[in-house]
Amino acid sequence: MKKALKRHGKAEKIVTDGLRSYPAAMRELGNLDRLEIGRWLNNRAENSHLPFRRRERAMLRFRQMKSLQKLASVHASFHNHFNSERHLVSRKLYKERRSAALTE
């Protein structure tokens, strides 16, 4: 926290969850008046971590890193090939692209 404050300057507000050690640390740093504790206040930060957490959870199933790397390399190529971003195109175009990918 000291490094972040030194690098970016003082923040208007610092949002944390209800962990008891945060107010003590903020008191020591002199930012206790800027601390905001709330249950849903940090949702924006937590939601930005969701894709990373999903991948991390999948990695826990593997015992060896080598087998994970093999699967991830194959999965990435297939995912890029078949991921046609359905929400961005019409149904007709999606069907055409999907059938072209399957024949390939």
Task: Tell me what you see in this structure.
The chain has 104 residues and is mostly helical. It contains 6 helices and 2 strands; from the N terminus they run H-E-H-E-H-H-H-H. The protein has helices spanning 2-8, 21-29, 43-48, 50-59, 65-82, 91-103, and strands at 14-16, 35-37. It has a two-stranded parallel ribbon with strand order 1-2. The longest helix is centred in the last third of the chain and has 18 residues, at 65-82. It is elongated. The mean pLDDT is 79.
Secondary-structure topology with pairs:
Blueprint: H1 2-8, E1 14-16, H2 21-29, E2 35-37, H3 43-48, H4 50-59, H5 65-82, H6 91-103
Parallel strand pairs: 1-2
List keywords for this structure.
6 helices; two-stranded parallel ribbon; elongated; 61% helix; mainly alpha; 104 residues; 2 strands
Q: Overall pLDDT, averaged?
A: 79
Residue stretches low in confidence (pLDDT < 50, at least 5 long) are none
Distance between the termini: 51 Å
SS strand fraction? 5-15%
Short précis:
The protein has helices at about 1-10, 20-30, 45-50, 50-60, 65-80, 90-104, and strands at about 15, 35. By secondary structure, it is mostly helical. The relative contact order is 0.07.
